[in-house]
TrEMBL record:
It comes from Arenibacter certesii. It comes from the Bacteria. This is Peptidoglycan-binding protein LysM.
Length: 211
């Protein structure tokens, strides 16, 4: 009798529970009037417009070394972008024209634009070329002041890259009277001042260098 009781008792309990069923408990929740949503919510977003297509960049600071010189110049030209072409057709990080590229031995503009290593080589080769063209002017004018600005080798060569070696010669030899603008309206004197004081003494002047 005890054996059957042990078996039947759990079965009876389960049967009783199922007979009542499992009914959900109704709980009435009252939402306060202040918290009720009566319409679409406004999206929280800054009031000023953000252009996500154009990355926020800052000029690099690498001191007065050669790397500091070329990166500062590149930032002025293209914000350091190897793969850009401006409205006048100048290419790459240092904004070279087709004529200058061909003069240095580069004839494929697409290849140049997609090759950062080649662009760096072209920049240094052109720097050596300008240093040769302006070698006498560098020797003559470095350390002197024109229009209140001390002339430095890096200022001369930066201006030559940005405005042309011929225009830099005219500026120096006229003692600042011939101060031409580049395509964007920036003067030779501005470039000489903006890029003064960098150490690029290790760059050797080379006559008619080629890549």
């Amino acid at each position: 009798m005890r054996k059957w009781t042990r078996v039947l008792f759990p079965v009876i309990i389960i049967f009783i529970l199922f007979s009542f069923g499992f009914k959900p408990v109704n709980v009435n929740v009252t939402v306060p009037e202040a918290l009720r949503v009566k319409g679409p919510s406004e999206v929280v977003f800054p009031n000023h417009k953000i252009n996500f297509k154009k990355p926020i960049t800052t000029p690099p600071f690498l001191g007065t070394s050669y790397n500091g010189f070329k990166e500062a110049l590149a930032f002025k030209e293209s914000q350091g972008n190897y793969f850009t072409t401006n409205a006048f057709g100048y290419l790459g990080k240092y904004q070279f024209g087709i004529g200058t590229l061909e003069l240095l031995g580069v004839y494929n503009a697409t290849l140049f634009l997609n090759d950062p290593i080649l662009q760096e080589k072209v920049f240094q080769t052109n720097l050596s070329r300008n240093k040769w063209i302006l070698r006498r002017d560098i020797k003559r004018f470095v350390g002197k002041k024109i229009n209140g600005q001390e002339i430095t080798e890096s200022g001369i060569l930066a201006a030559a890259h940005l405005a042309g070696a011929g225009n830099v010669k005219k500026y120096l030899r006229s003692y600042g009277k011939s101060d031409v603008n580049d395509s964007f309206g920036t003067t030779v004197s501005y470039y000489i001042k903006r890029f003064s004081g960098y150490d690029i003494s290790h760059v050797a002047p080379v006559k008619n260098p080629r890549i």
